[in-house]
């Protein structure tokens, strides 16, 4: 029981202790409720004031922090400027950061400029020391650079690329840029050595001993001067080679003052040589529509350029290929042969036994049928004895049949006394191409008159002829030479004739009127009896460069003393 009592007393004491603690905490909480409530009622104002205070101190980070805290205050008014203040703080904060960065960059730049000025002053000081040292060594100039350019004989630059190709070089011109180290202009002489890539020195006919050439010049005081030295080229040192050249410059005291090098390159190819060929050796090759050769064409093609190569042949379909020039292309290219285009030709005649010639090649007797004939123009000639030749040009078209039908015209004439009249004609003119059988009243026969006057042995004659059934006419006149004055009156005639005659082309039934001045030569034989000449024979030929017109006639008339007037009928033939 005692133990139970003690346990109860302990439990009561513990319970009273916890009750006291609880009452104490409740009192504390109660006592703090009113101040906390008051603090919550003043949260927005005090927090915003703190943020503004940080903002005025340019502590924009804390200012933004308290502005954001103020946004969580219970007493925050509906309308407030917290977002605007936060945005303003962030803008001011960014400006502060930028200003700090700009200030740091300016400080760094100023430090770099100061360092550069210090370095320049140091270099200038070293340059002055070097100048004094060179003056002490009798060096009056300092070469800062040497350029080597390709020029023509007059010193004009050929290429401006700066790259020297041995195929393009005419002359090499060195151009110096230098600073004068003395305080006044000084005349001096530079001596130069030029070494080829193989190490041998270039030497000219007038080279000074041990040098390639020398060059007198005036060294100007001050900085940044330019001097063009003497150029040299193929006329001086042979052709240029691929490789590196060395150019050494010595002063007048033989002291080397500068050494430079320049490189000459092998020009990369810009073309490729190509052979075009076609199996048909008669075909013509055209490259980009320009004639290149027959059967084979060798050309240099520009790399990268496209070419159209065409094989052409008359009466054939052209064939072509297109190629683009490259280093790896085939150097021999075969072009397809042109393909023939055929037509056909049918030739007939109005009579039998007519020989047919096509382009002067005998093709048999009409009718003639020619198939597989290449297109184009052909000359068709048809011949038959005692008929005029028939000639026509015909065009054979692709896959078409052309037709020629000849109407053969017979040569009509009136027989002469002679069986072989051409022998009679030879008396008057050689050569004779044709002479009709005597008087041809159908075509060439003519009638007219003549008048002859002759003194002792010399006189003149006039003659007029007119075609009986044509418009052919001639007027002639000239000198007469009398060979005899006996019963037989023999005279030679010579003069000029004006001929107006008509030609008929039986192939096309066209009529041509031609006029020509011609020569006239002939002979007259008369029979004189009792002062009268009852008849006479007159014959000769009228001719120009294209025609010859022989004539012969029988005249009836009267000769009184030395003059004869008569009428006659003449046979004449115009030949070509």
Protein model, in words:
The chain is an alpha+beta fold. The chain has six helices and 33 strands. It has helices spanning 2-41, 43-56, 60-70, 82-136, 234-237, 421-425; strands at residues 141-151, 164-165, 171-180, 186-195, 213-219, 222-228, 232-233, 243-250, 256-265, 271-278, 284-287, 290-294, 296-302, 306-312, 316-317, 319-324, 332-335, 339-340, 342-349, 355-358, 361-365, 368-374, 376-383, 390-396, 401-406, 446-454, 458-467, 473-482, 488-505, 510-529, 532-543, 548-560, 563-572. β23 and β24 form a beta hairpin. It starts with a helix and ends with a strand. The model is unreliable at 19-24, 26-39, 413-444, 505-510, 530-534 and 572-576 (pLDDT under 50).
Could you give the topology of this structure?
Elements: H1 2-41, H2 43-56, H3 60-70, H4 82-136, E1 141-151, E2 164-165, E3 171-180, E4 186-195, E5 213-219, E6 222-228, E7 232-233, H5 234-237, E8 243-250, E9 256-265, E10 271-278, E11 284-287, E12 290-294, E13 296-302, E14 306-312, E15 316-317, E16 319-324, E17 332-335, E18 339-340, E19 342-349, E20 355-358, E21 361-365, E22 368-374, E23 376-383, E24 390-396, E25 401-406, H6 421-425, E26 446-454, E27 458-467, E28 473-482, E29 488-505, E30 510-529, E31 532-543, E32 548-560, E33 563-572
Parallel strand pairs: 2-9, 10-17, 19-25
Antiparallel strand pairs: 1-3, 3-6, 3-7, 4-5, 4-8, 8-9, 10-13, 11-12, 11-14, 14-16, 15-18, 19-22, 20-21, 20-23, 23-24, 26-27, 26-33, 27-28, 28-29, 29-30, 30-31, 31-32, 32-33
Helix pairs in contact: 2-3, 3-4
Keywords:
eight-stranded antiparallel beta barrel; elongated; alpha+beta; 576 residues; five-stranded mixed sheet; single chain; disordered C terminus
